[in-house]
Write a structure and sequence with these properties.
- It is a single chain.
- It contains 5 helices and no strands.
- Helix 1 packs across helix 5, helix 2 crosses helix 4 and helix 3 crosses helix 4.
- The chain is about 70% helix and about 0% strand.
- The chain has about 160 residues and is mainly alpha-helical.
- The protein has one domain.
Amino acid sequence: MNASVHPTDDPRREVDRWLGNYAEDHRNPTNVLIHWICVPAILWTVIAALWVVPVPSLLGRTGLWAGVAMFFAIVFYLRLSRTLGLAMFAVFVVLGLLTELLYRQLGPANLLYLAIGVFVVAWIAQFIGHHVEGKRPSFLTDLAYLLIGPAWIVSKLLRRAGVSY
């Protein structure tokens, strides 16, 4: 990311600023490929880890905390772009359904162990990708880029499908 231009200072549309700045740190084909694999994997691990956090029965059921986190992330994405927000909603539905299936198959402890393992491997790969790229990860300049990474992948898929966001 260009250190002198923060997404809120740039005159372009906010979603374009965030995604454009993120793209500046992700140009090397090897790093991009690693991100295509690892960003969704890391997103899933966060959902899975939150899924297993106990929920008092008066508040709801297993997965509530993951649902709350996904809700706030969707609000962030919808603020940037309605289309991108709806696409991210679809991604969260798929990841939530996958997590529920794995929760039922593996149980909470094994799901958490799996999520931790995938998280560690995916982040190691991400840092290798950034080493190859020769740039540090975007989130080291602004933690909001942890939310922008998944949106960047989805925005590329939307563009390939001919959908503007």
